[in-house]
């Protein structure tokens, strides 16, 4: 079986992240044998193009995983929770993008630039990928951790509406159409009133002409699930169970690419010059940091690209062990599909060595 090309299933192929995954599979080296596209029964029969070939989407069922070596799950938590173990039981290595298994002790949480070895130990046959918010910052922070020893993170996220999928993007565009050419945004509550009851919106408040300091669900004590996810996932990926992490997650009127303001404190003293050297050579990171010349990352400039872009690197004015920085990354690429693809590619290497 030396050199065998493993078979692949993409579950959720018709979704937003699924569409990005099909692009990535067509762009990356062709290491796969058969590629099966899978979605809910209502989407079955749709034809999508992957690797230059038109492929019919199959309905999600137990039998669809027969003969599949690696199954990518790009679906909501409840779908992964139900069907991920089914695929693993049929012999597939599952790489899951949802939150269903991220904090399971028997499921590795993997970022290939940081802990690729973790993907090889998978008691349940499942490998999890972190959330898009964690992935937007973890590659850059992980590189600095390896050099200086991370002790504390204070993070504010500026999240794109595509974090809520197609519905999030549609709501933003509808709201922008309502406010365009008006004088809204000058009186208390006028934007909210213009939006109506907002029953269709996945956001807790209007996102057009606004920022919304809430992402995820209520996790108790004033925290949201996404804020606690950043905390738990950074600790697990970096292998730092006692890492101090505080996060505030905010939606902003941006279609795609999350931004993060990060205060990182380290065990050792850190200088901007040395931090620049580390970031400039870190895999998956682009250093873009000359603010006097207008060079710093913004979501509209990095959308559609793979790396985490880092700028505004500053020495803390009060602490020689800390730096502050601004990071942007496409939440649909590195924040979702790309990281899953990278994990799957590392798993595929196991078949070529068999």
From TrEMBL:
Domain of life of the native organism = Bacteria
EC no. given is 1.2.1.11
- What are the residue boundaries of the Semialdehyde dehydrogenase NAD-binding domain, all occurrences included? 7-122
The answer, when asked if Oxidoreductase is one of the entry's keywords, is yes
EC top class named in words: oxidoreductase
Pfam short name (any one): Semialdhyde_dh
Q: Which GO terms describe its molecular function?
A: aspartate-semialdehyde dehydrogenase activity
Xref: InterPro entries = NAD(P)-bd_dom_sf, Semialdehyde_DH_NAD-bd, Semialdhyde_DH_dimer_dom
Q: Which UniProt keywords apply?
A: Oxidoreductase
Q: Which family does it belong to?
A: Belongs to the aspartate-semialdehyde dehydrogenase family.
Q: What is this protein called?
A: Aspartate-semialdehyde dehydrogenase
């Amino acid at each position: 079986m030396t050199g065998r090309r493993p078979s692949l299933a993409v579950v959720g192929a018709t979704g937003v992240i699924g569409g990005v995954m099909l692009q990535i599979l067509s762009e990356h080296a062709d290491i796969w044998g058969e590629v099966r596209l899978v979605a809910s029964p209502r989407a079955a029969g749709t034809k999508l193009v992957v690797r230059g070939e038109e492929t019919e989407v199959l309905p999600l069922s137990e039998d669809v995983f027969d003969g599949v070596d690696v199954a990518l799950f790009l679906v909501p938590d409840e779908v992964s929770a139900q069907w991920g173990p089914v695929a693993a039981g049929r012999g597939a290595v599952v790489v899951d993008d949802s939150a269903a298994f991220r904090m399971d002790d028997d499921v590795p949480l993997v970022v290939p630039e940081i802990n690729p070895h973790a993907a090889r130990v998978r008691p349940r046959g499942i490998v999890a990928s972190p959330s898009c918010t964690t992935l937007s910052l973890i590659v850059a922070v992980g590189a600095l951790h390896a050099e200086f020893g991370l002790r504390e993170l204070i993070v504010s996220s500026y999240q794109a509406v595509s974090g809520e999928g197609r519905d999030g993007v549609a709501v933003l565009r509808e709201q922008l159409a309502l406010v365009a050419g008006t004088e809204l945004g000058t009186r208390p509550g006028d934007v909210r009133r213009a939006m109506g009851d907002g029953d269709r919106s996945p956001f807790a408040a209007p996102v057009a002409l606004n920022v919304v300091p809430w992402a995820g669900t209520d996790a108790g004590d004033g925290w949201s699930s996404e804020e606690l996810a950043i905390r738990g996932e950074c600790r697990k990926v970096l292998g730092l169970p006692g890492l101090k992490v505080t996060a505030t997650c905010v939606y902003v009127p941006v279609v795609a690419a999350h931004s993060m303001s990060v205060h990182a404190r380290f065990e050792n003293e850190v200088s901007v010059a040395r931090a620049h050297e580390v970031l400039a050579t870190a895999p998956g990171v682009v250093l873009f940091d000359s603010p006097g010349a207008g060079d710093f990352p913004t979501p509209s400039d990095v959308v559609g690209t793979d790396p985490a872009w880092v700028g505004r690197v500053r020495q803390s004015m009060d602490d020689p062990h800390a730096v502050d920085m601004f990071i942007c990354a496409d939440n649909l690429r590195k924040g979702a599909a790309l990281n899953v693809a990278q994990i799957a590619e590392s798993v595929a290497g196991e078949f070529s060595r068999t």
